[in-house]
Specification:
The chain is built from four helices and 43 strands. The chain has 506 residues and is mainly β. The chain has three domains: 91 residues, Elongation Factor Tu (Ef-tu), domain 3, CATH 2.40.30; 229 residues; 80 residues, Immunoglobulin-like, CATH 2.60.40. It is globular and about 95 Å long.
């Protein structure tokens, strides 16, 4: 089984055809999705408008509507709307725009996506699905990486990639979050804009991770996204509606599907349980909807799944009737007077919108370390190790109590990530030896103990500086039998290692 990587970015590998309007110095491209400050580069089969140069990077700012954008000399100018680039005429021939992000990729980076000149680099998710549909192998895992932030407009998209046994759509490149990732902020990152009332279908064995999905206009009345297939999943996603009197955010339908660390806001119905046998719906927030969480048709039977650690507050109705057929439900939160779902010995919690950091301005992280949702979740098999912002779960608390928070945001205690460590195993140590580890500059002592057995396991914090250059000294000179001093040097990194100690009798 191999892993096949593809990339989507603005314009893809081949670019998009544009036209120019002299009046107002406008570039025309339907549903271009560009963000203020995005770099673009033009080419042409003949001549660009006077004042524009092929191969030069300009910076875009959205124009009067979704089909227009303006040009600026720097990213800062584009964001501020200052020093707009002007041109005259419309040029001649066919004009093409490509993203500066794509053009900045090195030969080594491009090689990740296939043969030179025919790389698997596409101008959107629809193009990726179409291109890979007939090219996949039943033995290959498909990973579609999203490289930058822009709005990708789709219509009635069904995410199925040929015969691939696993497909991942991720806002990462080479395992690292790209600018496409929203970081838990509404409006940020890559946005998949659904222009139709038909749901985006996430089909068998497809996972979407770290994207924003929303209806392109408020007037659309339909489903936004449907976890439709077997083992379909969405995690770390923002589902953003435009009208609390219309549309459904996300429907959990497929058996063994997973909805984790997601936010649903701005819909008539935020999160809907359709049937989803053995589905996992955990660590989500539904807020600012008509109804937050509900079973499809308000049915009390044939609505399955494991519902844990979810928050539904700040909606007109937070929790609709609880299905009796749920396979488990616990540690879900609502407001006073609500009945969050709980099965058997399951527990529930109560909070208010004031327990969010800034409900009015769409910051749904915990307000403080004492907010009710903090440390109030339950662990379960396969629980994500990060939250919707990609911060560690649980959050590092510098020696204080650490627990999983309900909802998709972990409270940030302000200490950064858990320190990395190195575990060193020393074997064949003479019992009674003093084991001494200091940095080579002789400023910091990492370990100083008497060996009680011939195997000594030592875990030391990694600092990322000169303190990680270790001098290890092992000596037994206080009682017979005596041994000469054993010394060695090493540079420690996160992970583990072992050393066989050869102490010579003295």
């Amino acid at each position: 089984m191999a892993t096949v990587y593809s990339l989507i970015c603005f314009g893809g590998r081949t670019g998009k055809t544009v036209t120019f309007t002299d009046a107002g110095d406008v570039v025309n491209l339907t549903n271009n999705g560009l963000r203020a400050g995005s770099g673009v580069v033009f080419s042409t089969t003949s001549a660009l408008p006077t004042g524009l140069t092929a191969g030069t990077t300009y910076y875009a700012k959205p124009g009067a509507d979704a089909n227009k954008f303006l040009l600026y000399p720097t990213s800062a100018d584009a964001i501020a709307g200052t020093n707009q680039v002007t041109f005259s005429g419309t040029g001649s021939g066919t004009h093409t725009v490509k993203g500066a992000y794509f053009l900045s990729l090195t030969t080594e980076q491009l090689a990740r996506y296939g043969a030179s000149g025919s790389e698997r680099i596409y101008d959107g998710l629809t193009a990726f699905v179409s291109a890979r549909a007939a090219a996949t192998s039943g033995l290959d895992e498909e990973i579609c990486e999203i490289g930058e932030a822009w709005s990708d407009y789709v219509s009635a998209l069904s995410i199925t990639v040929g015969s691939a046994p696993a497909v991942s759509i991720v806002t990462k490149v080479s395992g690292v979050r790209s600018s496409a990732f929203h970081s838990g902020v509404l409006g940020a990152g890559y946005k998949l804009e659904n222009v139709s009332s038909s749901a985006i279908l996430v089909n068998n064995f497809v996972e979407v991770d770290g994207i924003t999905v929303r209806h392109s206009v408020a007037s659309i009345n339909g489903q936004l996204i449907n976890l439709n297939g077997l083992k379909s999943s969405a995690k770390n996603c923002i589902f953003h509606g435009r009208d609390t009197t219309k549309s459904i955010g996300v429907r959990v339908f497929g058996a063994l599907s997973r909805l984790e660390n997601c936010l649903a806001t701005g819909f008539l119905e935020g999160i809907v349980n359709v049937n989803g046998n053995e589905s996992v719906c955990c660590g989500n927030i539904a807020t600012k909807n008509g109804t937050g969480i509900k079973p499809d048709g308000n049915a009390t039977t044939n609505r399955f799944g494991h519902w844990r650690n979810n928050i539904s507050v700040g909606n007109t109705v937070n929790w609709q009737v609880e299905p009796t057929s749920l396979q488990s439900a616990t540690n879900n939160f609502g407001e006073a007077g609500d009945t969050p779902w709980a099965i058997g010995s399951g527990t529930t919690g109560t909070m208010a919108t004031t327990d969010f950091a800034d409900f009015a301005n769409d910051d749904f992280s915990p307000a403080s370390g004492s907010s009710p949702q903090v440390d109030a979740a339950t662990e379960y098999y396969g629980i994500p190790l990060t939250d919707i912002t990609d911060d560690e779960r649980p959050n590092y608390n510098n020696g204080g109590a650490e627990g999983i928070d309900a909802g998709c945001y972990e409270y940030d205690h302000g200490y950064g990530p858990h320190p990395a460590s190195h575990t060193l195993t020393l074997t064949n140590v003479a019992v009674g030896s003093r084991v001494f580890i200091r940095d080579q500059a002789n400023t910091t002592t990492h370990y100083d103990q008497i060996a009680a057995s011939s195997t000594v396991e030592i875990t030391v914090t990694i600092y990322g500086d000169a303190r990680d250059n270790w001098r290890i000294k092992i000596r037994k000179a206080s009682a017979a039998p005596y041994y000469q001093s054993y010394e060695t040097l090493m540079t420690a990194a996160a992970g583990s290692s072992s050393i066989y100690v050869n102490q010579l009798p003295n």
